[in-house]
Amino acid sequence: MTTTFPDISINTDRLVLRAYEEADIPALTEMMNDELITAWTSAPYPYTTADSEEWVRRTAPAERTEGRGVVLAVIEFLTQRLVGTVHLRAVDWRVRAAQVGCVTASWARGEGYATESLLATARWLFRAQRFERLELRTAAGNTASQQVAQKIGCVSEGVLRSAWIARTPTEDGRWTDTRTDLIVWSLLPEDLEGVTGQPAEARRSGHPGFREWN
Predict the structure, then answer these.
(1) Which CA distances in Å does 59 have to 9, 56, 199?
(2) Distance (Å, rounded) from C-alpha 121 to C-alpha 100?
(3) Collapsing DSSP states into helix, strand and coil, what is residue 155?
(4) More confident residue, 197 or 199
(5) What pLDDT was estimated at residue 30?
(6) What is the pTM of this model?
């Protein structure tokens, strides 16, 4: 049985999470060329306009329609600027489990946007899609991502030794690969009890702040 995710828009106090659009391509290209994103992800470097076009036009839509995941552009409501990306992947429909990852644009860091967007995504996944487990994997040296995992209520389950390759910039402007451990974090529906940052629409109307478009 093939299962797919709906085309959705999730609203929080400050953000809109929605599918990527053609107009997002320039901002996506700029965001993905940030050194921290290069260091902690497997994204191409340099990240070109062609990479963004492939992601927005083909890769991201296919993830959803084929039931493999969901890619959400995180947009600041007031400015309509691209804040980052939330990516649900490694979806197991039988056990209702998925992994999640996120990146944040350099200009938007330190504002709590990663925490806010991941909480909104988790609530939608657990409530609307009836999932029972969300997993995050953070590189051992990526303390910012580890702090976000803790803020949304995740529980640290252990370490996958030498399971990731991080990239470190060199003096000549290149990058060198370094093997590193991954810390595994999990989030279950009951872990969200008492966690702050509920979407604005949920507080006003008593239901999660999201809309389905199909």
Answers:
(1) 19, 7, 28
(2) 9
(3) strand
(4) 197
(5) 98
(6) 0.89
